[in-house]
Specification:
Layout (H helix, E strand, L loop, with lengths): L10 H19 L5 E5 L7 E7 L9 H14 L9 E4 L3 H13 L3 E6 L4 H9 L3 E5 L5 H11 L3 E2 L2 H8 L8 H9 L9 E5 L4 H12 L5 E6 L5 H7 L31 E4 L2 H15 L5 H19 L4 E7 L13 H6 L5 H13 L4
Parallel strand pairs: 2-10, 3-4, 3-6, 4-5, 7-8, 7-10, 8-9
Antiparallel strand pairs: 1-2
């Protein structure tokens, strides 16, 4: 039998990939790290609370880190080709960031998302040069994105599968490494808890792995919104659990357990009512003078509950939560009283709990 030789080496494609990777690495090099903001708490509590402000990325959210990692991962795997589109299933922020990186390397980008996505996010995607394909049923975004990619000879990025694989959780300035570097000069440099939320699950997986890799005792708590499959699946140990209704909190909570959600690395989960999350971001605007998204409110509500527990146990320490994106993207949703009423959300009891917490340190 003669030797069979199939040579697909393409020097032009290899050169294009090298140039694309170099552009993304250069973008990372000129991007400063995000801030760690101290949230003022009563001094007598002996507790420090920080928000990792991911809204200061060039595309305005935590998803900028993810999109950079996903593009590098796909480029180095040979999945993104010159002139071929990148397609993503996204609830908004990831698509904004991916549109940015697609434009940076010169390929088309198509975002498949639910019709309920805020108009502000759609405009941001389009401003970055992306196209938006809206679907009525949020559960179909995966199949539609995969189909469009196949039809157009492009690459389906699939953040929900590759989020936890694309990020180097051992270091390389991932979000966990950044948090601990910024805490190094604080009085409680190793926090008691880091509170995250889950859309793909990639961020909580990265944080949990980094903590284990560096031998830290910090706990990882994931706050989950209503209608999400993550908490009931984690509670039951059954990754096949699904929900019938999508999350009202954009960017987090899924109707299925995504492949990037690594539940075994998580120490604690809380289900946070959507009304509590919205009440929290309204309250935070009074405290910090700035607006944040609903995912931040979900995580911060859980962080407040953890702080109240530390106070009740007469313990001191620090807690870190994530400021995922700016509230400017949600002026027509979470910051609209009309939207809140139409959504059937009563913020009053949760606003009262927040006021009581900051007066007494009790979260009841």
């Amino acid at each position: 039998m003669e030797t069979v030789d199939l040579n697909r080496y393409d020097p032009a494609q290899r050169a294009w990939t090298a140039a694309a990777v170099a552009k993304i690495k250069a973008e990372a090099n000129r991007s400063a790290d995000t801030h760690l903001i101290a949230v003022p708490l009563p001094e007598q509590w002996g507790i420090d609370l920080y928000l990792k402000d991911e809204s200061t990325h060039p595309t305005g959210s935590l998803k900028h880190r993810l999109a950079r990692s996903l593009f590098l991962h796909a480029l180095c795997n040979g999945w993104i080709r010159q002139g071929s589109p990148v397609v993503e299933a996204s609830s908004g922020s990831t698509a904004v960031s991916e549109a940015y990186f697609a434009a940076l390397i010169g390929v088309p980008f198509i975002a498949v998302m639910a019709e309920s996505t805020s108009r502000a996010k759609i405009e941001l995607i389009e401003r970055e040069g992306g196209q938006c394909h809206l679907v009525a049923d949020p559960s179909t975004v995966y199949d539609v994105a995969q189909r469009i990619a196949a039809q157009r000879g492009g690459h389906y990025m699939d953040q929900f599968t590759f989020a936890e694989r694309a990020t180097d959780w051992r270091g390389n300035n991932n979000i966990a490494e950044s948090i601990f570097a910024q805490l190094s000069m604080e009085r409680y440099s190793d926090p008691e808890w880091i509170v995250a939320t889950a859309g793909t699950g990639g961020t909580s997986a990265t944080i949990a792995r980094y903590l284990a890799y560096t031998g830290r005792a910090t706990g990882v708590c994931v706050a989950d919104p209503e209608n999400s499959a993550f908490f009931p699946a984690w509670q039951a140990g059954d990754c096949q659990i699904t929900t019938a209704v999508g999350s009202r909190i954009e960017g987090i909570g899924r109707q299925r357990v995504e492949p990037s959600f690594v539940g075994t690395g998580i120490d604690r989960m809380m289900v946070v009512p959507d009304a509590a999350a919205i009440a929290t971001i309204w309250h935070l605007e009074d405290v910090l003078g700035r607006r944040v998204g609903g995912s931040t409110g979900t995580g911060l509500w859980a962080a407040y509950q953890i702080i109240a527990e530390l106070i009740a146990q007469e313990r001191t320490g620090s807690v870190v939560a994530l400021l995922c994106d700016s509230g400017d993207r949600y002026t027509d949703k979470y910051y609209s009283e009309e939207w809140v009423v139409q959504a059937g959300l009563d913020l009053t009891p949760y606003a009262a709990r927040l006021d009581g917490f900051f007066r007494t340190g009790r979260f009841a």
